[in-house]
Design brief:
Shape: elongated
Number of domains: 1
Oligomer: single chain
Distance between the termini: 56 Å
């Protein structure tokens, strides 16, 4: 497998955007607010979707000839969206379990 080339231009995996940067919003006590961290991740997924759409438009309009970069942008946007949906489903499942708890 030493002949396999790495793919350049891919962004690193999604990380909580509240961990660093100007969008860092903290709750009282210095802890990151979950809602704002989740909204930052949703904004990041939206940015990936917009980059994917722009790459497709550039390819269709003839401004770009590199199909591989378009495919990687689309795959990156798809993967980040699927991850977001998976997290959303886990949050909903946890909420339902919490609501069904006996007190």
């Amino acid at each position: 497998m030493s002949g396999v080339n790495t793919i350049s231009g891919l962004t690193p995996p999604l990380q909580p955007a509240g961990a660093a940067g100007p969008a860092n919003r903290t709750a009282p006590g210095g802890k990151t607010d979950f809602a704002s961290m989740f909204l930052d991740v949703v904004d990041e997924v939206d940015r990936h979707q917009q980059q994917s759409a722009l790459a497709i438009q550039d390819l269709v309009a003839g401004r770009s000839q590199d199909v591989l970069s378009v495919v990687s942008e689309v795959a990156n946007a798809d993967l980040s969206f699927k991850l977001l949906i998976g997290v959303r489903n886990k949050i909903i499942e946890a909420y339902k379990q919490t609501m069904n708890m006996q007190l």
